[in-house]
Amino acid sequence: MRHIPNILSCIRIAMTIAFIVLFIKQQYTACLILFIASFLTDVLDGYLARRNNWISDFGKLVDPFADKFMFISVLICLVCKGVFPVYLLIILVVKELLLIVGGLIILKKKHVSVYSDIWGKLATGLFFVAFTLALAKLAFASFIPDWLLTVLFITALTISVLSLFHYAYMSGFIGKKYRDHSAYETDTPQE
Questions:
Q1: Which of 2, 114, 116, 171 has the fewest Cβ atoms nearer than 10 Å?
Q2: Within a domain: 191
Q3: What's the pLDDT score for residue 135?
Q4: pTM, to two decimals
Q5: Does residue 151 lie within any of the structural domains?
């Protein structure tokens, strides 16, 4: 039972590969369903891991990888389709790389895992809404305006970048010395 969160994370990776294949085949309704299902399995595996303390080193790696793999893949597909401009993809990829490198440095030097706070969760929620609406627009030829999708995405991206600075501040990279280790010591996988 304790491996269920890891199994769900691996299923999300497979779902992302299926999403890419279906997107190439222009099966946008199926892509929308897969994306929503992937998001729900992410919520479920995080809930189960925290509630039952089913934490593992593998889970700490595979859960955030599955999340980033899905979000970056969906964004690349939507950029290729012309839904979002390419510069937004570049900014998001640079931000994610900085977060990964910073997280590895913190883990190596301080043996601390920094977990997602309210800013990271808010950004994830806004990305989910923006991607869901973009996929719905493709699937159902709906009249969701492009400007709304872009505003949602830029808002999510801005909050996401601010959360990166917040992590850097709380970890002592910028602004202050890292003091309160207990507030950020966690075995919980990043969400």
A1: 2
A2: no
A3: 95
A4: 0.79
A5: yes
Distance CA 120, CA 191 (A): 8
Domains identified in the chain, total number: 1
Q: What is the pLDDT, as a whole number, of residue 113? A: 53
Question: What CATH number does residue 19 fall under?
Answer: 1.20.120.1760
147 vs 59, 140, 142, 176, 189, CA distance in Å?
Answer: 37, 18, 14, 39, 34
Give the pLDDT confidence of 47-100 residue by residue, as tens digits. 888 888 887 777 777 888 888 899 899 999 999 998 888 988 898 888 888 877
Q: Which DSSP string do the residues of 154-191 spell out, in sequence order?
A: HHHHHHHHHHHHHHHHHTTSSSS----HHHH---SPP-
Q: Is residue 19 situated within a structural domain?
A: yes
> Which of 54, 61, 71 lies closest to 5 in space, CA to CA?
54
Alpha-carbon span 134 to 126, nearest angstrom: 12
163 within a domain of the structure (yes/no): yes
Rounded CA separation 120/126 (Å): 10
CA pair distance 94, 96, nearest whole angstrom: 5
Considering 12-21, 81-90, 176-185, the range whose residues carry the highest mean pLDDT is: 12-21
Residues in the chain: 191
Is the per-residue pLDDT at 132 higher than 70?
A: yes
Nearest one of 190, 2, 15 to 107, comparing CA atoms? 190
Give mean pLDDT, residues 107-112: 59
